[in-house]
Amino acid sequence: MFRRTLLLGVAMVLTVHGQWVLMREDADSLVREGIFYIYNMQFDSAEMYFRELIERYPEYPAGYFMEAMVAWWKILTNRRSRDYDEEFLNKIQRVLDVCQPLLEENPYDIVGLFFKGGALGYRGRFYAMRESWIRAANDGREGFEILMRVQRLAPTNHDVLLGTGIYNYYAVKLPEMYPILRPLLLFLPPGDKELGIAQLRASARNARYAATEAKVVLLQILYDFEQNIPEALNVAEELFQRYPRNPYFHRYLGRCYVRIGALEKMEQTWKEILRRCIEKWPGYEELTAREALYYVGLAYMQRGEYEEALRYFYKCDELSRVLDEDPSGFMVKVNLKIGNIYDLQGKRELALMQYRKVLSWRNVQNSHEEARRYMEKPYGSP
């Protein structure tokens, strides 16, 4: 009986500013408060709100889904760790288990469909991150089909557009990046990158619960794949201003400043990131510290302060040797930059040693071409 009361608003498809309501006012408030703490890296506070939601409504999937999102962000902000994988998968399975009786009672239960589709979508993203492509494809297909059913049942909903937008974009982008996946994706619903971006923008503007996550996905797409740095910068600035403890948003903000050549903001941002890494703020891990060392060194190099630049570059190289099994992009590029500075300082033999080292590693962003060019003609020479 209480579940029918809880879902009454959904069954009637009530709207708030054109957005359909998923839950009662008290549950809605707990979810929205908890969401803030997820993105601001205050996971204990977030989990407190979601545990209260589960205690009030144990048959309702929202609290379990939001607990899984806490685990998801632990994974995103602890990139070298697999410690949270099992926790995430178990919590996603719990969401699916709670959705099952809702859908057995009513196959058109919007709440059951919404959270089942969302849980499968996130599990598919997890499997893609771990390069388990068959599992990712299966979950992505099923999640997308379920969310399309929700969209037909509640066409004014913008939270659904997060999932459909992700699917539409990456169903095209992933086979472009990994051609080996094309045969696997032939039997999945076709995607549409432009539609995917449009859906993510609509979700970012209008979704009640998924607006921030839509901006997160949009930020990665705009910066990493579409090379739309001005829009990416706007999104990064908005997210970091709202969630100032989040290292994911902080990194993208710093990267955008690098790309637009905002030297002062770039240096300030990456120095602050490095400070937080040293102080061990949540999520400011060793990979973030390595990136900060590189960009602070780059800022000094661009200002002509070569000894100070080398100080940061040496530390970046040292940390790379701890972190990397094989030379990473940062390790390759920082050694190339060290060679450039040696050339600018007139230390030609040391510079040549750096360029030979770069040539012995994998080619990263034309690093071999650059190294050969600087071996023939010193960096910075007329």
Question: How is this structure best described in words?
Answer:
There is one protein chain. The chain has 382 residues and is mostly helical. The chain has three domains: 1-208, Tetratricopeptide repeat domain (Serine Threonine Protein Phosphatase 5, Tetratricopeptide repeat, Alpha Horseshoe); 227-319, Serine Threonine Protein Phosphatase 5, Tetratricopeptide repeat; 324-382. 74% of the residues lie in helices and 1% in strands. The chain is built from 20 helices and two strands. A two-stranded antiparallel ribbon has the order 1-2. β1 and β2 (19-20) form a beta hairpin. α16 packs antiparallel against α17. It is elongated, with a radius of gyration of 24 Å. The model is unreliable at 1-21 (pLDDT under 50).
Give me a quick take on this structure.
The protein is mainly α.
Topology:
Elements: H1 2-6, H2 8-11, E1 15-16, E2 19-20, H3 25-39, H4 43-56, H5 62-76, H6 85-105, H7 110-129, H8 133-153, H9 160-177, H10 182-185, H11 193-206, H12 211-225, H13 229-242, H14 247-260, H15 263-278, H16 286-302, H17 306-323, H18 329-344, H19 348-359, H20 367-376
Antiparallel strand pairs: 1-2
Q: Label the overall shape.
A: elongated
Gap from first CA to last CA: 81 Å
Strand order of the largest sheet: 1-2
Portion of residues within helices: over 70%
CATH architecture label name of the largest domain: Alpha Horseshoe
The named CATH superfamily of the largest domain = Tetratricopeptide repeat domain
User: Strand count, sense and closure of the main sheet?
Assistant: 2 strands, antiparallel
> Which regions contain 5 or more consecutive residues with pLDDT less than 50?
1-21
Q: If helices are DSSP runs of H or I spanning 4 or more residues, what is the number of helices?
A: 20
Strand content is: under 5%
Q: Specify Rg, calculated over alpha carbons.
A: 24 Å
Give the count of structural domains: 3
Mean pLDDT value: 92
- Name of the CATH class of the largest domain: Mainly Alpha
